[in-house]
Write a structure and sequence with these properties.
Layout: H1 2-9, H2 14-17, H3 30-44, H4 48-58, H5 66-86, H6 96-100, E1 108-113, E2 115-116, E3 120-126, E4 132-136, E5 143-146, H7 147-154, E6 163-170, E7 173-187, E8 190-200, H8 203-209, E9 215-217, H9 219-222, E10 225-230, E11 235-240
Helix pairs in contact: 1-5, 3-4, 3-5, 4-5
Length: 243
């Protein structure tokens, strides 16, 4: 029971992302909307293994909308987190060789520094902007960039028509922010193309940590990979999933 409680505590942030995830499906078919609603219910109910299986089916559908795709990514990622939590006793921090033995080095797409500041942090480059620190949030359904950083380094290179107003749902409730689709994000040698990014004021978060964070990177980058966080060595390792 204690182990189950520890696992569930680490997954509470799911509820912050699923506020309206199943309520906006555009022109999707009735069957796809039903499956999307079922997926959201499974994630809300912490049934991550069942959600993982359904997400695999949904992700193969070309008509999938962005909201449902984000929930699919969350389901895949959280299923992996549950499996890791259940075997944590087998891979303690003082035995890093046990974790290393589980990683197929030939399948590693990125192996980059992981900084343990007030939040897990990585250095990345967004849309060709200078490298900067970004919070790595495995439970976030999207990517964020700080307003002043966006205005100085990214916005001048964009066609203004690409910047549209959109709503996001987070810990602070619903907010209207600027959205840009189709941006690239580089994490070490790995480049993620076609990413959706929201302009978001990071001022409060930056005041807490006392260092500048240019934004936040969420599970749209992580879910295609097996994600390994080696806290002892300070490394983020993204391993390609077996086909």
């Amino acid at each position: 029971m204690e182990k189950h409680a520890r696992i569930m505590l680490s997954l509470l942030s799911v509820l912050l992302i699923l506020g309206q995830a199943a309520d906006s499906h555009g022109a999707q078919s009735s069957a796809l909307r039903q499956d999307a609603g079922k997926l959201a219910a499974l994630v809300r109910g912490n049934s991550f293994r069942e959600a993982d299986k359904l997400a695999a089916t949904l992700l193969a559908d070309p008509a999938l909308d962005a909201h449902t795709m984000a929930v699919c990514g969350l389901a895949v990622l959280k299923a992996g987190r549950v499996r890791e939590a259940e075997v944590m006793d087998l891979y303690p921090l003082e035995r890093p060789e046990l974790l290393a033995a589980q990683i197929d080095r030939s399948a590693v797409a990125a192996d980059v520094p992981l900084y343990l500041f007030d939040a897990t942090t990585v250095e990345a480059s967004m849309a060709g902007a200078p490298p900067a620190f970004y919070i790595l949030d495995t439970a976030a359904a999207t990517n964020l960039v700080d307003g002043p950083f966006f205005a100085e380094h990214i916005k001048p290179k964009l066609d203004p028509a690409r910047i549209v107003s959109a709503g996001i749902q987070g810990a602070g409730g619903a907010q209207q922010v600027n959205q840009v689709n189709g941006l690239s994000i580089s994490l070490g040698p790995l480049v993620f193309e076609g990413q959706t990014v929201y302009e978001f004021p990071m001022e409060t978060l930056n005041e807490i940590g006392g260092r500048y964070l240019a934004g936040l990177l969420g599970n749209p980058l992580l879910w295609p990979y097996r994600v390994h966080m080696d806290f002892r060595a300070g490394r983020l390792i993204l391993e390609k999933r077996p086909i």
